[in-house]
Design a protein that fits this description.
The chain has 6 helices and 4 strands, in the order H-E-H-H-E-H-E-H-E-H. By secondary structure, it is of the alpha/beta class. It has a single domain, classed as Rossmann fold (3-Layer(aba) Sandwich), CATH 3.40.50.2000. The strands form 2 sheets. A two-stranded parallel sheet has the order 1-2. A two-stranded parallel ribbon has the order 3-4. It is globular and about 40 Å long.
Length: 120
């Protein structure tokens, strides 16, 4: 199966820089290990440019923020993944169900809102 992140064009982001930073700072505050795959926020070229100052040093060894493509099915199938936060695209929901991974949906557009309702 091919990985499909959403029905949104690949070069389109839905998060502002402030939203992007709040999301990853929230993950930092959990104290838990994390892997985040996000597109750069609106108006920013790369994920690295959008990271808060000192963030990488503070989460080194337990947190990764990646802006490129990932093999999502392999990640979701790993036993250390306890929760998947997703935009509720059909492909991502399907992969979550196949891997028996818990999912938190955060829909942004189109069918994602209906998909999220189905998962509740």
């Amino acid at each position: 199966m091919l990985y499909q992140s959403s029905m949104i064009r690949e070069n389109t982001s839905v998060l502002t820089k402030d939203q992007f930073q709040e999301l990853i700072l929230g993950l930092e505050l959990t104290g838990s290990p994390f892997l985040v795959r996000l597109k750069p926020p609106i108006g920013v070229e790369t994920v690295d440019e959008a990271l808060p100052e000192g963030f990488e040093e503070r989460v080194r060894g337990r947190g990764i923020v990646h802006g490129g493509w990932v093999q999502q099915q392999l990640i979701l199938s790993h036993p250390s993944v306890g929760c998947f936060i997703s935009h509720a695209g059909f492909g991502s929901m399907y992969e979550s169900l196949i891997s028996s991974c818990q999912i938190v949906t955060v829909p942004h557009t189109a069918d994602q809102f209906e998909n999220a309702k189905v998962m509740t």
